[in-house]
Prior knowledge:
Layout: H1 2-5, H2 18-49
Amino acid sequence: MLALAGCKPSAPPPQIFKTQTDALEKAKGVEQQLQQTQNRENAAADEQQK
């Protein structure tokens, strides 16, 4: 117990995968935009069939 009390908290680890996580977030945003576009196109097609 005493050994743990003397330890300083370590600094947060560097963001090793920051480039990858940034790319993933960007891809999620693009996917959402594509889905919204598809939803609008489907709604327009449904409206034309009426």
